[in-house]
């Protein structure tokens, strides 16, 4: 594709540009910034104190500053989590100086990003965690959220599947809603990131290059998040990308090349087992259908997948303006044959400083293009079900792929009740998609000359995207035999614009040991999506469905006012209060405004006289907070749910009057009293440190109560214009606790061994569904695949959201389930729906993260493990396929069956038996890595090199026998396997 050719040429241009920049400057001071073990610190800041001259180290810890005047200067090196180190240097010619930084105990002086500003970690009143690049997950990382998986207490990240570039479900403290969004707000360099799906892109975050990211800051409690108001009920993730510094260009190139393999396949019967089962249990007709092949259909659709991820960046300054330019190119194959993702990314940051540093400007521009070929994921279930005694290929009119048929001669057609050939489903569907995204903003920070403590901040930005693609199925494909093939197109665009302005005044009054920090601001947000409607065609060119309108526009706007007041007394007592008012066009005038206050208090106990000289404690801080946040977003929460509206039907549903057919308009359900969903959070936290900072961490407990839950529900016919309605339905409580602990077990000149552990407890419960006083009222929350209209999960009072609603299975003396035999729980002598009960849920009660890093001289080894306890999965694969009537079908075909058929012996489906609810607790090793830092490639040169090897998805320990115990929906069906990936990486800096 031409755009990717241009991208590759762009990488060459960057190299030429960097060479010119190097040539343009002469005279320099250079050196390395190392950690306490002698390993390089990439991204460390090196500043000439008293000037604006600065730079950042490359991946190997090297830095260089040029054009310095002769004389004495003070050079300062700093890195997040380490104590800043100053050195006096005499400049008479080119000079060399190296820094070795020491960890900053609990990183108390670390400046972290918060909503509309920054703060020192020691003065935080909210529950906030920062993860920097040094602690990111390693290996083949294609979407940003994977970088912090298992790293933050209370943050649960579950990848949706193993598809290239696919996104993840991100939950901070379990989520606080039913049908409204439970996703956190993500802000990238000050730009609120749209999480809306982009047509023909694997996921919204897949268009962001993880190699450009410097830090993640996770805001968890309401005091930290309330400044973001209506978008922050489920937490906030602030992403800061890498920036440039002053001095000579620092060039970094990294490449990661990996092979992904199928870690586990669904356990089904082999061809010989199917033949044995049919011969033992089938009739003459069924036995005659047996083939002679031995086809492993899962092997037939999966492949070893190669990925190459390359990134080049240049950072420095040009005529005093710091800059960073980067480009990346990802070429990733999927485990499913033909699955492929190509992604090109680029970013530019400029940071000019004007008026003697009174005006600071940050310009950020990021862009990405993806070119995808999506393999037909329907082949996954087909491979589980398809008869393994049949061959892949056959001499027929369906592309020479074996298919089950009915009829003979010209009347022969594919059997409509049979699964399609898995390989044909993939090979005979051409699904191509392209997506483009651009995110950018301009931030202006002006410090008034007459009052430097007063800052005016303006942030103007946008987030625009476009996704388009087409799907072609040829005339001879059995999967589209009813229409003699098919052709369809899709196009969707989104344009988000925003402007934010706020004033900040910070002043310290030494005479009363007080510091005041006040912020007040305004925000305007405009979100518009346009979906284009195209005619779908048969393979012969005849229209299948013709749209009524060529496009439709969905739009919503929000107006905000916000403020924050921080007061610090004697560096020990900190009080913080925030207020935000949001007005959303998603609600009627009488409910349009939502008000979201918060207050927090911190007591730095370590600063008291009785602990100030403690040789045991290095930190002790108590945090208390209260706050309210709102929610208005979600897949079912539309822009116009509060107003009367009409929708035009398609041309396939016209109404005939006389001899003319007319499109008609149908009213849609609406709730004129629709209002904000509001979450109130209470949090108490304790930060601690011992042994001079070698052991430190935090403990938090919290309680959240969500009122006026937004949800789509089924309503009685005739009460509105639809049988479904989005409305406010009730309340939900969330209780939890989090613990994190970090420990440096060994710290010598050559050896360091660090450990990090986090644990979380979280329990959600629906406390009220005000829409219906009936104690048995429940809201559908998930259905079974394979059974029409069979509801599996519900939201109900006093239950965990999305709890399974099942029959209690009866077993024989040997522990084998008895088909169709369930317990009569209400004792009325018959088994009816009144005997169903709530049993378990997908929510884990406890989650754990563990990471450790061991370094010896230039070698390092690291690993990350995660665990989940109390989460349960519905085994839909076994309930649908692991039965006799599926294998010995009565419609003229044979199928395969899940191996569970050998355990149950079930003849027919028992979808709602609690036998299929399985304990899916697990322990996973996400990552195991080994790295060697070669250092300088020559004695006098500046080029450095680092090599690494990683394995991801190393092992899983679980009782669950299915493909994978980690499922966000709690239903195991048609899961694209998560691969085991082996990666070799190379990083070069100069």
Helix content: under 10%
Which radius of gyration do the C-alpha atoms yield?
A: 30 Å
* Biggest sheet descriptor: 22 strands, antiparallel, barrel
For the termini, the CA-CA separation is 31 Å
Shape estimate: globular
Number of discrete helical segments:
11
* Low-confidence spans: 3-26
**Estimated share of beta-strand residues:** over 45%
Number of strands: 59
- SS-based class: mainly beta
**Average predicted local confidence, pLDDT:** 89
Structural overview:
This protein is about 10% helix and about 50% strand. The strands form 13 sheets. The protein has a 22-stranded antiparallel β-barrel. The protein has a 5-stranded mixed beta sheet with strand order 11-16-17-14-15. Strands 1, 4, 7 and 8 form a 4-stranded mixed beta sheet that branches. The radius of gyration is 30 Å and the shape is globular. It starts with a helix and ends with a strand.
Write a brief structural summary.
The chain is mainly β. The chain is globular.
Structural topology:
Blueprint: H1 2-24, E1 28-34, E2 45-48, E3 54-56, E4 62-66, E5 71-78, E6 85-91, E7 95-96, E8 99-100, E9 111-114, E10 117-120, E11 128-132, E12 155-159, E13 168-172, E14 185-188, E15 191-192, E16 213-219, H2 222-225, E17 236-241, E18 250-262, H3 271-281, H4 284-288, H5 297-301, E19 305-318, E20 321-333, E21 340-350, E22 353-354, E23 359-373, H6 378-385, E24 405-406, E25 413-414, H7 422-427, E26 430-447, E27 454-473, E28 486-509, E29 514-532, E30 536-538, E31 543-545, E32 551-569, E33 573-584, E34 593-604, H8 609-612, E35 617-631, E36 646-648, E37 655-657, E38 660-662, E39 665-667, E40 677-690, E41 695-707, E42 710-714, E43 724-728, E44 730-747, E45 751-769, E46 778-783, E47 791-796, E48 803-806, E49 809-811, E50 817-822, E51 837-838, E52 846-856, E53 859-869, E54 872-875, H9 876-881, H10 884-887, H11 901-904, E55 917-919, E56 922-936, E57 944-958, E58 971-972, E59 979-989
Parallel strand pairs: 1-7, 1-8, 14-17, 54-58
Antiparallel strand pairs: 1-4, 2-3, 2-5, 5-6, 9-10, 11-16, 12-13, 14-15, 16-17, 18-19, 18-59, 19-20, 20-21, 21-23, 22-23, 23-26, 24-25, 26-27, 27-28, 28-29, 28-30, 29-32, 30-31, 32-33, 33-34, 34-35, 35-40, 36-39, 37-38, 40-41, 41-44, 42-43, 44-45, 45-52, 46-47, 47-48, 48-51, 49-50, 52-53, 53-56, ...
């Amino acid at each position: 594709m031409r755009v990717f050719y241009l991208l590759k040429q762009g990488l060459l241009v960057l190299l030429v540009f960097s060479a010119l920049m190097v040539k343009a400057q002469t005279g320099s001071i250079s050196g390395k910034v190392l950690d306490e073990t002698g390993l390089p610190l990439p991204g460390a800041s090196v500043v000439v104190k008293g000037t604006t001259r600065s730079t950042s180290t490359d991946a190997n810890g090297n830095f260089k500053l040029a054009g310095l005047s002769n004389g004495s200067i003070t050079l300062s090196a700093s890195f997040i989590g380490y104590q800043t180190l100053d050195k006096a240097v005499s400049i008479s010619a080119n000079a060399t100086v190296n820094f070795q930084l020491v960890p900053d105990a609990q990183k108390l002086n670390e400046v972290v990003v918060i909503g509309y500003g920054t703060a020192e970690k020691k003065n935080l009143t909210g529950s906030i965690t920062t993860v920097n690049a040094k602690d990111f997950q390693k290996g083949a990382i294609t979407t940003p959220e994977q970088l912090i998986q298992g790293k933050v207490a209370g943050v649960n990240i579950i990848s949706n599947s193993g598809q290239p570039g696919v996104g993840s479900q991100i939950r901070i403290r379990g989520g606080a809603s039913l049908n409204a969004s439970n996703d956190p707000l993500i802000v990238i360099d000050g730009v609120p990131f749209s999480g809306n799906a982009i047509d023909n892109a694997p996921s919204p975050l897949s268009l962001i290059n993880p190699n450009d990211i410097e830090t993640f800051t996770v805001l968890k409690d309401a005091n930290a998040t309330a400044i973001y108001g209506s978008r922050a009920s489920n937490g906030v993730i602030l992403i800061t990308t890498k920036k440039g510094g002053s001095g000579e260009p620092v060039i970094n190139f990294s490449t990661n090349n990996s092979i992904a393999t199928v870690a586990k396949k669904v356990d089904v019967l082999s061809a010989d087992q199917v033949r044995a089962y049919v011969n033992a249990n089938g009739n003459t007709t069924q036995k005659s259908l047996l083939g002679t092949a031995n086809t492993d259909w899962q092997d037939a659709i999966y492949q070893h997948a190669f990925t190459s991820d390359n990134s080049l960046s240049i950072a420095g300054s040009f005529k005093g303006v710091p800059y960073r330019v980067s480009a990346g190119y990802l070429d990733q194959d999927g485990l499913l044959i033909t699955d492929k993702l190509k992604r090109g990314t680029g970013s530019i940051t400029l940071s000019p400083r004007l008026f003697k540093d009174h005006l600071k400007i940050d310009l950020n521009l990021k862009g990405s293009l993806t070119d995808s070929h999506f393999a037909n994921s329907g082949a996954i279930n087909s491979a589980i079900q398809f008869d393994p005694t049949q061959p892949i290929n056959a001499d027929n009119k369906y592309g020479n792929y074996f298919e089950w048929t009915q009829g003979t001669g010209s009347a022969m057609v594919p059997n409509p009740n049979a699964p399609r050939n898995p390989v044909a489903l993939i090979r005979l569907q051409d699904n191509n998609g392209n997506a483009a995204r651009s995110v950018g903003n301009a931030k202006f920070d002006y410090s008034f000359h007459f009052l430097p403590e007063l800052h005016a901040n303006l942030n103007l930005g946008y987030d625009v995207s476009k996704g388009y693609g087409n799907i072609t199925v040829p005339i001879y494909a059995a999967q589209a035999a009813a229409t003699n093939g098919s052709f369809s197109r899709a196009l969707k665009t989104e344009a988000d614009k925003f402007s934010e302005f706020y004033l900040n005044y910070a002043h310290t009054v030494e005479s009363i040991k007080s510091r005041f920090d006040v912020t007040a601001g305004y925000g305007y947000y405009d979100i518009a999506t346009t979906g284009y409607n195209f005619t779908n065609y048969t393979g012969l060119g005849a229209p299948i469905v013709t749209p009524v309108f060529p496009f439709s526009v969905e739009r919503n706007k929000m107006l905000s006012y916000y403020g924050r007041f921080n007061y610090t007394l004697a560096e020990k007592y900190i009080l913080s209060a925030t207020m935000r008012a949001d007005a959303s066009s998603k609600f009627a005038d009488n409910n349009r405004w939502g008000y979201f206050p918060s207050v927090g208090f911190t007591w730095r106990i370590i600063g008291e006289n009785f602990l100030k000289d403690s040789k045991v404690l290095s930190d002790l801080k108590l945090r208390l907070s209260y706050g309210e946040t709102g929610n208005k977003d979600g897949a079912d929460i539309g822009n116009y749910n509060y107003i009367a509206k009409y929708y035009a039907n398609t041309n396939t549903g016209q109404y005939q009057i006389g001899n003319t057919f007319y499109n008609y308009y149908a009213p849609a359900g609406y709730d004129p009293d629709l209002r904000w969903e509001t979450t109130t959070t209470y949090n108490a936290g304790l930060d601690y440190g011992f042994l001079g900072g070698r052991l430190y961490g935090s403990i938090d407990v919290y309680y959240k109560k969500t009122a006026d839950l937004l949800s789509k529900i089924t309503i009685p016919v005739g009460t509105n214009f639809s049988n479904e309605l989005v409305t406010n339905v009730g309340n939900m409580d969330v209780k939890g606790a989090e613990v994190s602990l970090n420990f440096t077990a060994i710290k010598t000149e050559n050896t360091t061994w660090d450990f990090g552990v986090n644990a979380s407890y979280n329990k959600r419960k629906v406390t009220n569904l005000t829409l219906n006083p009936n104690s048995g009222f429940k809201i559908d929350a998930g259905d079974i695949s394979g059974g029409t209209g069979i509801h599996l999960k519900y939201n109900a009072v006093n239950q965990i959201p999305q709890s399974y609603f099942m029959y209690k299975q009866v077993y024989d003396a040997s522990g084998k389930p008895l088909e169709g035999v369930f317990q009569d729980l209400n004792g009325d002598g018959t088994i009816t729906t009144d005997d169903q009960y709530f049993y378990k849920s997908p929510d884990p009660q406890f989650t754990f993260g563990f990471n450790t890093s061991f370094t010896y001289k230039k070698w390092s080894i690291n690993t990350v493990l995660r665990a989940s306890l109390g989460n349960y999965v519905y085994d839909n694969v076994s309930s649908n396929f692991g039965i006799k009537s599926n294998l010995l079908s009565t419609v003229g075909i044979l199928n395969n069956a899940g191996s569970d058929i050998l355990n149950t012996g079930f003849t027919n489906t028992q979808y709602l038996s609690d036998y299929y609810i399985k304990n899916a607790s697990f322990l996973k090793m996400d990552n195991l890595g080994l790295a060697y830092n070669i250092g300088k490639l020559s004695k006098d040169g500046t080029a450095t090199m680092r090599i690494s090897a990683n394995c991801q998805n190393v092992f899983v320990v679980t009782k669950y026998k299915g493909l994978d115990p980690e499922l966000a929906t709690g239903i195991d069906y048609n899961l694209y396997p998560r691969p085991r990936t082996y990666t070799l990486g190379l990083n070069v800096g100069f």
